[in-house]
Design goal:
By secondary structure, the chain is an alpha/beta fold. The chain folds into two domains: about 5-140 and about 315-325, 3-Layer(aba) Sandwich (Rossmann fold); about 160-305, Rossmann fold (3-Layer(aba) Sandwich), CATH 3.40.50.2000. It has helices at about 15-25, 60-70, 90-100, 110-125, 170-180, 200-210, 225-235, 250-255, 265-275, 285-295, 315-325; strands at about 5-10, 30-35, 45-50, 75-80, 105-110, 135, 160-165, 190, 215-220, 235-240, 260, 280. Strands 2-1-3-4-5-6 form a six-stranded parallel beta sheet, sandwiched between helices. A six-stranded parallel beta sheet has the order 9-8-7-10-11-12, sandwiched between helices. Helix 2 packs parallel to helix 3 (about 90-100) and helix 3 packs across helix 4 (about 110-125). The longest helix is centred in the middle third of the chain and has 14 residues, at about 110-125.
Length: about 325
């Protein structure tokens, strides 16, 4: 190992930081440094970047990153790639991401879909040849137990559960709309807190649920122990994100031996091709949720179905990350 340093950035509970930390801790010989601790040590650095944890917008984030890194050789993993669904922020986001890429020796993304999004960003805003891009899938660790725990919810009065931060497009509103024809005794539970600036979405979801005659509950931030309980006891796991490019939430369900109901999209299609046993792709979300309520066993992955070669675990993903850094001569 050379003098490569892994840099951690963002709030300690943010998924991007937690992902970077997990991979860094599984890489022997490379120190982990908190960006908040001050100046970085000399030598090459690798960090995980999303504009939302580096600046007030993508261009500001790119400038802050450039100032932080200085002349150090940079390898970067990009998250939350810009796409047209970003609306008014799309242009500034893709300009910002192009600047980050321009300052890097090599880039990593979490899916082939994200590679395609990045190629579009670079084609519109980049200059010259794009640095090498490697795909390192988000890890899915093998479950430590199989099947529902004793006393877990499994009947038609159990909750439909969505994991992760609450924000527009995450899939909470879409899931609630799909539940309109279900028994009003089936609640929707959002396991996670609202993203900053989107607290008003909770009121909208509560009002819509009330109009259906059902309850909506948002747990707020949950500990790992609480999250483990929710993934085990949820009746119906759902991920209906409208513009997903890679998903830690889906992977969390899978690593709990749950087979979530997911809505079609480029990334979901990619995941389904790799591991068709891991998700239920639903073109008709109301019908899929209704079917799962009548057959809760369909939301569980059997141990005999598990294929670790299709879904790299944390150790494998860390090795893939390091190999991509080594390929550009920074480790």
């Amino acid at each position: 190992m050379s003098d490569l340093t892994f840099v951690l950035a963002g709030p300690v509970r943010h998924g991007v930081r937690l992902h970077a930390q997990a991979l860094g801790r599984r890489t022997r010989g490379a120190p982990l440094v908190n960006i908040e601790d001050g100046a970085l040590p000399p030598g090459p650095v690798h960090l995980h970047f999303t504009d939302r944890i580096f600046g007030r917008d993508a261009l500001d984030a790119a400038e802050r990153l450039a100032a932080l890194v200085g002349t150090r050789p940079l390898s970067v993993t990009l998250h939350d790639l810009p796409q047209p669904s970003d609306g008014a922020s799309f242009e500034r986001r893709r300009q910002g991401y192009a600047r980050v890429v321009a300052g890097a020796r090599g880039v990593q993304v979490s899916s082939e879909h994200e590679r395609g999004l990045l190629e579009q960003v670079w084609g519109a805003c980049g200059d010259g040849a794009m640095p090498p891009v490697a795909v390192v899938p988000l890890p899915v660790d093998r479950p430590t137990r199989w099947g529902p725990p004793a006393g877990a919810q499994g009947s038609t009065d159990g909750a439909v559960v969505v994991l992760g931060f609450v924000y527009p497009g995450k899939g909470h509103a879409e899931t609630l709309a799909a539940m309109a024809s279900l028994s009003t005794g089936v609640p929707l539970v959002a396991v996670g807190a609202p993203s900053d600036g989107h607290e008003d979405l909770l009121t909208e979801l509560e009002d819509e649920a009330a109009a259906q005659g059902r309850s909506f509950v948002c747990t707020g931030y949950v500990t790992d122990e609480d999250l483990e309980r929710w993934t085990a006891r949820a009746a119906i796991p759902v991920s209906a994100h409208t513009h997903i490019s890679a998903s830690g939430s889906i992977n969390r369900w899978i690593s709990a031996a749950r087979r979530p109901i997911v809505t079609p999209g480029a990334y979901v299609g990619e995941l389904h091709r790799r591991a068709p046993w891991a998700v239920t792709v639903a073109a008709d979300l109301p019908a899929a949720i209704g079917a799962a309520l009548h057959d809760p066993t369909s939301t569980w992955i059997r141990e005999a179905e598990w294929d670790g070669a299709a879904l790299p675990d944390t150790g494998t993903a860390a090795a893939m990350q390091l190999a991509a850094i080594e390929a550009i001569g920074l480790a």
